[in-house]
Amino acid sequence: MSFFDDLPEQPARPREPQPAQPGWLGPPSDELPGIARVGGFVHKDSRTVVVLKLVEVYSTGCMFDLVWSVRRGTESDQEWREMVEESYNHPRSSLDTRTGLELGVAVADGRKAVAAIHGPAAFEDAAVTGPVLTTLGGGGGSNNSEFVQFTGRYWLWPLPMEEDITLVLRWEALGIPESSLVLSGEQLAEALAGVQKYWDQ
């Protein structure tokens, strides 16, 4: 007999249904997204670059995968350390969107949304009509004495249906003026056709 054979069994736990997640909070957890290859430079100059690598399209919205990179110029060691620190783009309050990287989207009918950390958490889901742009954090980065590079992910809800959308950003502390990139609604719609559910039922 094994030492472990006569241990008492854990009592059965009741299965608890999971509450439905509001659509604006993030992508569905049971979908393989379609990929829209609509990436490009949102901003580019001799020192700073902000790139949209790709867009993951889900049935309810889409995820923007951004990369920003800064090359060192004539900054002193202290000035460069401050620039690296700024480039981390640390999460801030959802009420404090005008610091660090400002990111927004404009849809075809004139509505717009600006990225916040928590989204419209103060409202009931039924009252949220969108568009909503939510910051979902970064995917890491790197830096040294010559360059810094980081990534960020942003969730747009609901998914614009076959309409072009404009991604707009500004980062005053890094000297990045208001810049934009138009994303093809047709390509987003094509990627939507590639979304796959994890489970058949």
Descriptive report:
- The chain is built from two helices and 13 strands; from the N terminus they run βββββαβββββββαβ.
- The chain has 201 residues and is mainly beta.
- It has a single domain, classed as Immunoglobulin-like, CATH 2.60.40.
- Strands 2, 3, 4, 5, 8, 9 and 10 form a seven-stranded antiparallel beta sheet that branches. A four-stranded antiparallel beta sheet has the order 7-6-11-12.
- The N and C termini lie far apart (43 Å).
- The relative contact order is 0.23.
Return the average pLDDT rounded to an integer. 86
Say what the CATH topology is.
Immunoglobulin-like
The counted number of beta strands is 13
Distance between the termini: 43 Å
* Helical segment count: 2
Q: Major beta sheet, specifics? A: 7 strands, antiparallel
CATH class: Mainly Beta
Overall 3D form? globular
The Cα radius of gyration reads: 21 Å
| Beta-strand percent range | 35-45%
Structural class: mainly beta
What would you say the CATH architecture is?
Sandwich
Low-confidence stretches: none
Compute the number of structural domains.
Answer: 1
Strand/helix succession? EEEEEHEEEEEEEHE
Q: Helical residue percent?
A: under 10%
Oligomer: single chain
